[in-house]
Write the structure tokens for this entry.
Amino acid sequence: MAAYLCMVAIFIIGSFSWVFPEAAASASHGAVTRHYNLNIRLQKVTRLCHTKSMLTVNGKFPGPRIVAREGDRVVVKVVNHSPNNVSIHWHGIRQLRSGWYDGPAYITQCPIQSGRSYVYNFTITGQRGTLLWHAHISWLRATIYGPIVILPKLNASYPFPKPHKEVPILFGEWWNADTEAVINQSLQTGAGPNVSDAYTINGLPGPLYNCSANETFKLNVKPGKTYLLRLINAALNDELFFRIANHTLTVVEADAVYVKPFQTDVLLIAPGQTTNVLLKTHPNATSASFLMAARPYFTGMGTFDNTTVAGVLQYGKPSMTSLNVSIGLPLPALPPINGTAFVANFSGQFRSLANSQFPANVPQTVDKRFFFTVGLGSSPCPKNQTCQGPNGTKFAASLNNISFALPKTALLQSYFFGKSNGIYTTDFPSTPLNPFNYTGTPPNNTMVANGTKVVVLPFNTTVELVVQDTSILGAESHPLHLHGYNFFVVGQGPGNFDPSKDPAKFNLVDPVERNTVGVPSGGWVAIRFRADNPGVWFMHCHFEVHMSWGLRMAWIVLDGTLPNQKLPPPPSDLPDC
Ligand code: C2O
């Protein structure tokens, strides 16, 4: 009898850990808390026959999955055993009144210093789908990232056929060199950083690189089944096209919000974006293999990593020869590198599911309007130095021509304790100070201004923000990410935004709701959100290089009058700078 009970216990724990790897759960009154430990360490990792010391989490690369259900509380103890300062961001998690746990270094917290720890503690409210977690300081997210899987509430189902299996697919970017050295050198010389050596799928570059045939992601499938692929772009600097040869995908969710399902052969996914797709396997294929591949979309003027990552979709038992076979398989055709027409058409297909169970609560009226330009520019070369950026300057990037300087202490603490003096100012411009023809001939002076400037919003303000790409130093798509919120993408278009014509075309019924949107290359995008989450919220380009150059700013959302509209005080273990 005892042995039988013991076997049942093992079975329950075993099956639980299959769905929730590395998690410990405790339940009280129906609410479930999931506990995770993330240990950050320096470790040797080899790819493309290059071994380097890099930061890993729990000895894994990519890092472990965080799995929870909608409504769960997630408690993650992050222990920094590495020599670097680290912080972790739960990208796309709304963090309702839990801004102390959002994670961007010097915005909501000082970094976790070497040998220290911090316990992140947040509840997942009104979200289900796929997100990601990643380091949020310098370029450490190059190796510190992993999936967040949010399952529907217990006994709730998907608004699409139940998949046979669910598979996270993370795109990443690999440098043979140390990525901190890469960005530090770029910031020193003013030149663009060295481009990556490979893209990866779940950490593996695939057979199209030198010395990488054994480092190929394989997805083993059965015929006639539906698989839910949880696609995550964790690459640093590249939007990626993705396709699986001979298979059509059905998009069902973006940034942890259900969308009206649509079919596509090719996907575009920007850094910071997540997309859930259904893959239906062919009913009669018992042993066959197909390549899946991803490579960049790029319209800028600089250099980029123009390589292709491939993986294998394998029907039936993996055979001994499948490794070599994968090299001979046909690559799926992808749009041209600068395929802006494809991108415009593809992003136009996303619509919120917007049904009674999952409504799209689009703000129908606007309290405050903003117009921000986004793009590259220059900053002066220091005296007695030669710089390798544009015309002997340094590359910079800005919103409304302000290149955001990170403060020495965290903005949220300065704000909460009323000590903003010398840390930040509240004069971030709501429109460009010197308007020009944004997508036409650039102005003579392309120098950016520097500052730590924020916008202050009263609680519950409805905001409309138009973000306009500039062609200064080349038109380029910018994946704009907002912390603490989802926003609705109510409009987008090519060229300069026309305030007299374009708003009439806005979709206020079922626009896609997400946390990261690609500002079209040489075009504009309009978003709306309701400022109902008090705190300090970072907004930035999710290209890490543009963020390093200053393409970032912050919104301060004030407390409301009711007790449940206020940000609680910080936890006692909040790191100091
Ligand atoms: Cu995924 Cu502020 O970033």
Q: What stands out?
A: The radius of gyration is 23 Å. The chain has three domains: 6-151, 165-347, 368-565. The chain is about 10% helix and 35% strand.
